[in-house]
Amino acid sequence: MQEAKGRPPRTPKTPEEVANLHLYKKFREYKKVENFKKTGFYRICNLFNIISFFIYVELVMCFFGPCHWQQHYCTHVKAEYGNSYKGNGNVLNEVILTDTEGKKYEFVVKEEIAPPLKFSSFYVGKDYILQKELKGGFAGSEKTYRIYTTGGIVFLSCFVGIFSLILFSYNMNLHLHSLRSITAINFLTIAGFLLF
Fold first, then answer.
1. Angle ∠(85,63,173) on CA atoms, nearest 5
2. Which of 142, 60, 74 is nearest to 105 (CA)?
3. Which of 187 and 196 is assigned the larger pLDDT?
4. How far apart are CA 20 and CA 113, in angstroms?
């Protein structure tokens, strides 16, 4: 009979050979990461991601804490009333103020207060870095109210900031594809903040 042609049977590796193979793969991965850390792409992307994270933190802190205040004077006041849980129609839902330059500010109030008078002053709070208008107030009320478009900015800042923090804590920025993804998400978020 003729012997079947084919591969000779494999001899299993010894535990020492398996351990050496495992160490070799770890060393090769380590060298790959170290070489990637030396590239300019790695440094620029990580620097941009760190700056983006601090912008998100600054936006949230300015929304809940101190910010840059500017005083304006309104030439037109539009108040929108709605019902509260008790059913009366005295709740001031929104106040839309137009300043002397024609820019409109829409404050979410949801309280039983009188709207500001025409030609009265109001103030708007901006963050320090991007100068996004986050909150404000007007004469007749000592509280600050959020500007209508602020909800999306604060939500995205919290969500993408926590997302970036989690990815960085798992060292996902040490790999090319995940670093590109994190950078793309942060770039689109910051570009959205700047454009809208």
1. 120
2. 74
3. 187
4. 75
Residue tagged 């590796």 (tokens) = 13
Alpha helices in the chain (DSSP H): 15-37, 40-64, 150-169, 176-195
Structure tokens at 44: 């620029």
Q: Is 120 helix (H, G, I), strand (E, B) or coil?
A: coil
Would you state the pLDDT for residue 13? 85
Query: Domain coordinates of the chain in residue numbers?
Result: 67-149
Q: What's the pLDDT tens digit per position in 98-151?
A: 999 999 999 999 888 888 999 999 999 999 999 999 999 998 788 999 999 999
Query: Over the range 155-174, which residues count as b (16 or more CB within 10 Å of their CB) and which as e?
Result: ebbeebbeebeebbeeeebb
Instruction: Quick: pLDDT tens for 44-90.
Output: 999 999 999 999 999 999 999 999 999 999 999 999 988 655 555 67
40-64 helix and 176-195 helix, angle to the nearest 10 degrees: 40
CA distance 160 to 175: 19
